[in-house]
Design a protein that fits this description.
Helix content: 25-40%
CATH topology of the domain at 29-87: Alpha-Beta Plaits
CATH architecture of the domain at 29-87: 2-Layer Sandwich
Number of strands: 3
Strand content: 25-35%
Strand order of the largest sheet: 1-3-2
Structural class: alpha+beta
Shape: flat
Length: 88
Amino acid sequence: MNEKKNSKELESKSPPTGLLPELAEGLGGFRIAFKMQLYKGFEDEYKKRHDALWPDLEQLLKSRGISEYSIFLDETTNSLFGFSYIVL
């Protein structure tokens, strides 16, 4: 069953990249990737906070339509690369 979603529902789940709700509606979902830099000296704190997903964060992600979420640390450069899939 493919129900039509109103634009308010779509706007609340649209990415900050400006994907128009009218264009996103036929997709069923979309992927977002991001890159960040971890400050030197914060590696242990990052690992501690990302070893396990907090239950309240998991609930928040799911409530926003995020069905997949991964983040990776490149230990040679301290670059963080993240990926999420948002279901419309």
